[in-house]
Design goal:
Chain B: It comes from Aldrovandia affinis. The complex is a heterodimer of chains A (about 350) and B (about 230). Chain A has helices at about 1-15, 20-80, 85-95, 95-110, 115-120, 130-140, 145-150, 160-185, 195-225, 235-245, 250-255, 260-290, 295-320, 330-345. Chain A is mainly α and about 350 residues long. Chain A has two domains: about 1-80; about 160-345, no CATH class. Classes of the chains: A mainly alpha (about 350), B mainly alpha (about 230). The interface of A and B includes residues 9, 121, 124, 126 and 200 of A.
Chain lengths: ~350, ~230
Amino acid sequence: MKVELVAIHSVTLFGLGRWDVEDILLYFLLGFEISAAVMAAVDDLQFQEFDDAENLLAANRDATTISIGDPSSNPKKQRRVPGATPREEDDDLLGNDDSDKTELLAGPKKSAPFWTFEYYQTYFDVETHQVLDRIKGSIIPWPGKNFVRLYIRSNPDLYGPFWICATLVFAIAISGNISSFLVHLGLPQYHYVPEFRKVTIAATAIYSYAWLVPLALWGFLMWRNSKVMNLVSYSFLEIVCVYGYSLFIYIPAAVLWIIPSETVRWISIVVAMCLSGSVLVMTFWPAVRDDHHRIAIATVSAIAALHILLAVGCKEYFFDSREAEPPTEPAASMTAKQILPTMKTK
Amino acid sequence: MAEVDEGNRPMFAGLSDVSISEDIPVEGEITVPVGSPSQDDECSTLDEPVKDTVLRDLKAVGKKFVHVLYPKKSSSLLRDWDLWGPLLLCVTLALMLQGGSEKGKDDLGPQFAEVFVIIWFGSVVITLNSKLLGGTISFFQSLCVLGYCILPLTVAMVVCRLVLLGGSSKVSFIVRLIVVTVSFSWSTFASTAFLADSQPPNRRALVVYPVFLFYFVIGWMILTFSPSP
């Protein structure tokens, strides 16, 4: 392009007769040289840029692998020393190749920036049998086994937590409706009205529990980690994953709460609490074990207390505790039903 | 430099001098090459009556309804998606779920907006879920399938309202329960017939479960609907 322009210039000048052939040649060559130099410089720039990008990428890759590998691989090795044989066996049973695959893929998988779809796909990278294994692991406590290390293995998914929460919301809302229907069944002039409000309230309560408590716990563990070195540390998503799966046990419990009997409800709460609460406690105990004794106990009991508070709160709020007591007049039952939630919050 | 600047002037002046001499006639024919006139008639929707346009779209929607009622793994529901059918079904369902309680009292049943949001937000979440799990289906195709597969449940809603006209007794409840259960399983079966193929086999259950939950919740809303006495 540039050469052509220079040529046109020189030809016009030549036509005017002011320049001689040598000058034109010189001009021509000069123009050629300049354009060649410019092109070379551009090429250089491009190469430079490419090198830079690759260096940066390489650095990033290293950085991510270090940050991911650190919490998961070091404690694993250290924890594996005392009880080596049973844990190894479990790893084999659960598929060692799987863990190898996840560890190999961990580096490039996490390198996708957060605004891309691929970044979020890494949190849904689970298969049916993995999800079932995780659910099983969350409701069956094995003494001395760590849920995160055994099932999640640096591949926390959001599929389980999200859909378990959604199922729990509708399980609570639907069985709450059915139980209030059963309580009032057979009463004269009782007109059943579905309470859709329960879905909204249950969704707010459960989703905030499943996100805010892990957030608070993660912040707390980070803070403690900066003061006292703990061997085990969890990432935020691992904590969310543990909490999400730990809510699974409440789904069958919520279905059992349909039975209008306080005894059955309390038994189901205690059983659910013992199963998933102990999994939670066993998971987070190693993370606080090296801390001061008092703080460790307090953290673990706070986790357990919040877990039981959710269950008791849901049961009290969404399920009519009255066991089919006949109201004095039909109008009173209607108003009582509306006042009831406000009374209970007091 | 001055010489170069001076040299520029004649060049541009020469350019401005370029003109078409008057003895060359500037005339011609502007024609668009037409392949075949019959094809042109088929494709053109500009000069057809509005009735034809509307009828063609309605026919496409109706054809998809038939596909939902006879889910035989046809891909035509996936190939050309539209959201008219889902909108129609969703609005019909939400309108029929209205009026669940007495006038003057708080309506505790699902409101129009709640039904609308549950259906659209639910299908968007299910679609995102299937995309995140690595499905090959496109976003709007999945929305289209999920929306069209509400058809059996909308039919169940119509049947329920008709049954409820005869009063709400134990018999009517059992009839409604059967109708809703059948239409719920029909919806789930139809949508999985369309959607499951786009998934790797070891993740099929993970995609089908949210669809099941979605139609279950809609079925529950239909079953528990009770009109004001």
